[in-house]
Amino acid sequence: DTGVSQDPRHKITKRGQNVTFRCDPISEHNRLYWYRQTLGQGPEFLTYFQNEAQLEKSRLLSDRFSAERPKGSFSTLEIQRTEQGDSAMYLCASSLRGNSYEQYFGPGTRLTVT
Amino acid sequence: GQQLNQSPQSMFIQEGEDVSMNCTSSSIFNTWLWYKQDPGEGPVLLIALYKAGELTSNGRLTAQFGITRKDSFLNISASIPSDVGIYFCAGRLVQGGSEKLVFGKGTKLTVNP
What we know:
heterodimer, A: seven-stranded mixed β-sheet, 49% strand, B: mainly beta
């Protein structure tokens, strides 16, 4: 399967704990995006990378959130000191520069903060 | 922030019927995309539109990019049970050089066999 993969698919954590999610984009795609989706809503943009450079961040990305893409391949999204309001589906997408409007999504990581 | 108004919010149809849903915005978009999402999964890209007035088909799906660049519609012909899911429109804004997509809230489609 050469699609976008995300790990883990589900994460349950207690409030105050740190969590980290991983995204592996489609192999030749150099752009990678993170979105957050809550129940009944469409995905909301968090941040995006072109290769290893983080080029855009949403105001939704508070200082408890950090994303990296150290070698321009996979990416990690870390949430520190989780809050119940962080419970959501975290989606990763990738695209190819030059045809960057077509973003292909992974299956998502469902985070539940108790 | 930017908003996409997607309607209807939900639809209940009989198998074989045609379906139409649309998205409007007060902002101008230079790209419109339509996605389908199944429960617990990520959105799957159905159709991408790049030019005002463009009409594009993908099997039983047809989508159009509005002339004003502020709207788009998606039609599904001869619906089948596997069309069940949530359909999202998404747009890429013109201004600011942003690469992000702005999504609507989705249209939930139920198809009765």
